[in-house]
Amino acid sequence: MRQWFHFPKDNTDRAVRRWLRATLSETGASWSMEERECAALADRLMAGLDDRHRATLEAVDRRYDEGELDRLGGWLDRVVSGEPVQHVVGWTEFRGLRLACNASALIPRPETEEVVTWFLEGVDRMMDFRRRKGPVKVVDFGTGSGCIALAIKAARPHWEVWALDVSDSALALARANGAALGLEVNWVQGDLLSGAVGDLPQSVDGLVSNPPYIPLKERADMDAHVRDKEPALALFVPDADPLCFYRALAVQAERLLQEGGCLLAECHFQFARQVADCWQLEAAETEVLSDLQGAERAVRQIRH
After folding, report:
1. Which of 138, 163, 262, 282 has a beta carbon 3.0–4.6 Å from 122's, enabling a disulfide?
2. What is the pLDDT of residues 113-168, one digit of tens each?
3. Whether residues 253 and 138 fall in one domain
């Protein structure tokens, strides 16, 4: 295990960060990490000790004591062994929110931030068109860490947000994140696939989800730190039925989504068009949305 005496004697932020990047580059060859990825990983580990901007840390001549370097050495060993850095330091950021992370739920991804933006735009657009009065009500199916639901509530504090998950441990994590952020979300245990979705409003203005969508046959080709360290329940679907969660969402949309409502879900890029085809609501406008990298990332439907 790496300890404080393995680090450079100059324990300034600049020196420690440089050493950490070099060490990750040396060890990263075995797990095919590029130099820029090592640099980003080093910065993420350093943020676990002090998340102020690097320029600020250098300006105040930030130095790390032996206890902090021991902690950083332990984190480094865990990352090199394949543990996700978000689990190692215990948190990540999502649309400006600091969220606790553990193995109970998927680590929030940057691409899912775009999903939140698209959903907010879809609901806002229809609210303006309808000039609706009263609280806007939305539901996040398969909330995991709570990242989508909490980001929605942070962006639209006057909306009423429900968030559902089948996993007790994921809901415990989501509740803890909501409490830490002071954001009020109605957390509900339920099973989208079975239709036992618990206590939800009778009608809502929006449904959003980042459901499991990776076929099991792709498991062997995935990065080990995702495949082995994140919950399979939130990742995989049967090879023979990769759209099962999207059909279940369509059922809930038929039941809950009122006229002018927005339904949006993140998708596997290979199945986005099929998801759009399987969402056949009467008098609805359906569109496939591409992320910043050009991949088809989500399907959004507005019920007119």
Report:
1. 262
2. 999 999 999 999 887 666 666 789 999 999 999 999 999 999 999 999 999 999 99
3. yes
- The Cα 95–Cα 158 span in angstroms is 18
At 39, is the pLDDT very low, low, confident or very high (cuts 50, 70, 90)? confident
pTM exceeds 0.85, yes or no: yes
Calculate helix-pair angle for 13-28, 66-80, nearest 10 degrees: 20
Least Cα distance to 147 among 194, 205, 105, 118 occurs for 105
For residue 67, give every residue at least 6 positions away whose Cβ sits within 8 Å of its Cβ, in sequence order, or none: 4
Q: Name the β-bridge partners of 165.
A: 189
Domain of residue 25: give its range: 4-81
Supply the pLDDT for residue 25.
Answer: 85
Of 270, 265, 232, nearest to 248 (Cα)?
Answer: 265
On whether residue 200 sits in a domain, the answer given is: yes
- Chain-centroid distance of CA 239 in Å reads 23
Give the ranges where the chain is alpha helix by DSSP (H): 13-28, 35-49, 54-59, 66-80, 85-89, 110-130, 147-155, 168-181, 224-227, 244-256, 272-278
Q: Average of pLDDT values for 182-198?
A: 96
Helices and strands (H and E) in the chain: how many: 11, 11
16, amino acid identity: V
Joined tokens for residue 286: 């359906």
Q: Quick check: is 139 in a domain?
A: yes
Q: Is the per-residue pLDDT at 304 higher than 80?
A: no
